Amino acid sequence: MYDYKLDIFNAAKTALQGLEQTDVAASDAFCDYCIPCFKFAKILRKSPAAIAAEAAANIKIDGIKVEALNGYVNFTIERGAFVKNAFCGTLGEYKPLAGKTVCIDFSSVNIAKPFHIGHLMTTVIGGALCNFYRALGATVVGINHLGDFGTQFGGLISAYRRWGDEKRLNERGLDELLELYVRYHSESEKDEQIADEAREWSQKIERGDEYAVGLFDKFKSITLEQAKKVYARLNIEFDSYLGESFYVDKVAGVEQKLNAKGLLKTSDGAKIVELGDDMPPALIRRSDGASLYIARDLAAAYYRHENYGFDKCLYVVASHQALHFKQLFKVLELLGERWASDMVHVSYGMVSVEGMALSTRRGNVLYLSDVLDAAVEKALAIIAERNPELKDKNTVAESVGVGAVVFDALYDGRLKDKNFSLADALNFDGETGPYVQYTHARCNSVLTKAKYKAKKADYAELLDDEAYDVVKLLADFDDVVYSAAVKYEPSVVSRRLVKICQAFNRFYNADRIMCGGKTQDARLFLTARVAETLEYGLNLLLLDAPERM
C-alpha cells in the first residue's frame, strides 16, 4: 500500500515546527489518520486545540482532507485513491528486517516435568514472534533453552532408584516421572538423607558418571518426545535445544571476563557481581563452587552472540523473572558489551485455570496436551452440530480446537494474567480463534460458489461505508505485523484479525455479493483479499485456516 502516513508525517512535521515527536496514528472514528497534539502543549505553550487548528490550516496534501477536532489533526483520504493504493502491493512483501538476525528464547521446558498449561504463554508468544520476524525478512533462531541442570535431577534419580521401576517408566513415561518428582519433593522435606542423596547424584551427573548421565539422558529423551508432540500440534519448530547443561563448562570463560574487568567479588565464599544500590548482587558461584543460573545465562548470551551475531535476543519468560533479566543485562552492560542493549525480556502474565494457579512440585498440574484434547473434542461436537455433512470433521476439529486455545492466549495483551476458560475460547460468535477461522471459511464458501478466479476489480465499486471499512483494515496489515513484532505483542495481530472479521461480516450482511456485473466482481475481489489476509494472519499466530467448517 502507498504510505500515506509518510506524506502526513513530513507535512505535519513542518507545520508543527519540525517537532520530531509527531506521531501519525490510524483512526477508525472520524478520519483515516490523526495526530494528537496534547504532548506539544508544554513545548509550544499553547492548548492542544489551538495547536491542532494552526497545524490543520498549514498542512496541504493532495487528495487528503485536513481538519482540526478536539486537539487532534484529522486526515481523511479521498476514498477512490485510498482503495486503489490499498491493493497496489502483495501481502507479505514488506521486508524491513531483511539482513537482521533475531534469537528468540522461548518455551524452555524442564526435563522430567510435564508440558503443562503454564507453559502455554511462553510457547505461543515465542512461536508467534518467530513467525512475525521471519515474515518481515529477519533470520530467526528459535531456541528451546532446556532446563536440564540442577539438584532436582539428582533428586529424580534418587527417587527412581528408591521407588521407580523400569517397566513402569517405559509404559507410563512422563506420568511416571512426574509422580516420582512430586514424591521426591514431598519425602525430602521430611528426610534430610534423601536431599543429601539427591545432591550426590547431581554431582555425579555434573562429573559425567556413566550410570547417572545415562539415566538422566533417558529422562530427557522421554520429556522431549512428549514435548515435540505438543509442538507439532502448535505448528512450532525450534532451531536449537541447547539447555543449561551445555553451558556449565563455559561459565569459567565468563568468570575470566568478569575478573579482567575487576567485577568478580568474593562474599562469604561466594562469587558475586555488585550491581549498585538499586539491585541485589548477581550470584555467580555459591561458596561450594556450584555455578548459578545467571552464570549459565551469561555463558549462553556470549555463545549466542558469537555464533549467531544477533541484532536482537529475546527472552520470552514470565514477568516474575524480571529481576533476573535486569541483573543479567546489567552484568553484560558492566562488562562493556554494547550488544547488551539488544537483549530484551519479553515478559507475560501468569496462567490459571478457573482461578487455580499451577505448581508442578505439588502435583496439581494440568497437561497442555489434555487441554488441547478437550478443546478438540468440544470443537468436534460443535462442528458436528453446525455442519454434520462436513468432510474431514476430525481434521477440522483439531485445527479449530487447538487454534482456539492458542488464539485465546494471544488475544489479550501479554502482560495480563490469564484465567483460561475452554467455553470462552471455543465461542464461534465471540472474539475468538473459531470466529476468525469461521469467517475465513465463509469467505472461501462464497468464492467457491461463485467459481471466482482472481481478476482486477473496479475499485470504484468498493466505496460504500461497509466495503471501505474492510479495505481500511486490510490496507496496512503488513504494518500491523511489523508493529506487533517491534512491540513483542501478538495481540496486535489477533485483534486486527477480529476487526477484519467483524467488518467483513457487516459488509457480507449489508452488500449482496452475488449481484452481477462489475459490482459483483469487485465484491468477490474484496472477499478474496479478506480470505488471503485471514489465512496469512492466522498462520502467523500458529493457527490453521480451514477452508470449510
How would you characterize this protein structure?
The protein has 549 residues and is an alpha/beta fold. Among the domains are: 4-77, Arginyl tRNA synthetase N-terminal domain (Gyrase A, domain 2, 2-Layer Sandwich), CATH 3.30.1360.70; 151-228, no CATH class; 368-540, Isoleucyl-tRNA Synthetase, Domain 1, CATH 1.10.730. The chain contains 22 helices and 14 strands. It has helices at residues 4-15, 41-44, 48-58, 79-86, 120-135, 151-163, 166-172, 174-188, 192-207, 210-233, 244-247, 251-260, 293-308, 322-334, 368-386, 393-411, 422-425, 433-449, 465-475, 477-486, 491-510, 517-540, and strands at 25-26, 33-36, 64-69, 72-77, 101-105, 139-143, 264-267, 270-273, 282-285, 312-316, 343-346, 351-353, 356-357, 418-420. The strands form four sheets. The chain has a four-stranded antiparallel sheet with strand order 1-2-4-3. It has a four-stranded parallel sheet with strand order 6-5-10-11, with helices on both faces. Helix 14 (322-334) links the parallel strand 10 and strand 11.
CATH class of the domain at 368-540: Mainly Alpha
Residues in helices, as a percent range:
40-55%
Mean of residue pLDDT? 92
Number of distinct beta strands: 14
For the record, what is the CATH homologous superfamily label of the domain at 368-540? Isoleucyl-tRNA Synthetase, Domain 1
Structural key phrases:
549 residues; alpha/beta; Gyrase A, domain 2; 10% strand
Give a brief description.
This protein has 22 helices and 14 strands. With 549 residues, it is an alpha/beta fold. Among the domains are: 4-77, Gyrase A, domain 2; 151-228, no CATH class; 368-540, Isoleucyl-tRNA Synthetase, Domain 1.
